[in-house]
Amino acid sequence: MRHPILISAALLGAMTLAACDQSGDAQVERALQDVNVVDETNLNDVMLTVADPNEAVNYFLRASTNDPGRIDLMRGLAKSLIRARRPSEGATAWQAVASHKDATLNDQIDLADALIRSNDWDGAEDVLDAIPPTHETYKRYRLEAMVADSNEEWSNADSFYETAVGLTTSPAGVLNNWGFSKLTRGDYSGAERLFTDALRNDSDLFTAKNNLVLARGAQRNYDLPVIPMTQIERAQLLHTLALTAIKQNDITIGRGLLGEAIQTHPQHFEAAVRSLRALEDNVTN
To answer: Is residue 136 part of a domain?
Structure first.
């Protein structure tokens, strides 16, 4: 009479072991999936930062094709296209991201950025106008300022630049842009102050150094500012100052600055040599 009971017990034990095996397999599979997700995330990050931009484009293009509709891969492709200096394609890719059901307001801002890079200022303005004013980010206001600049809406531009400066801990870039805006308007002293502020925040920002020299030269101040600079940078800034002087018909000063630039540069300074040769030819003729 005990045999059926023993058989039933044996069958129950086998079924229990099978269930344990299946449960264990499922746990292992889930763990492997988690590892794969982590590995893929790390690879995506690498592709977006240190990889060659065009290699990153190819990677995200393949990944998006294999797994269509994944917004993280779509974002990776859009960002990589911008990094690869392919703004028109990047704008199209960001449009696809912004149209996705899981898109965020920051995706809209990145779309506006891509449209500006592809010279579609009206499109960028339309995108920014559709973003609620309560969504306040540094990048949003920096782009708003650039659009206002393009429309020559100077008071709006100043307001947006000021807001953007207050929303970042690294304001050098936006201060430089704001200074260049002032420079194009002819507010040279205002531009000079902003370029100086930019360099106070980032003393290595060469574009701000060059713009500062332009602003000073436009006021016929042909002395280099007291700022950190390498010997090569000093030569380049002297060259910029010389061209500014020549443009304002201060020929003698310009000639002297060109000579100083050539002497200062540790290597052969071909651009300054060409400028001096062209100046001498024009004076002779």
So the answer is: no
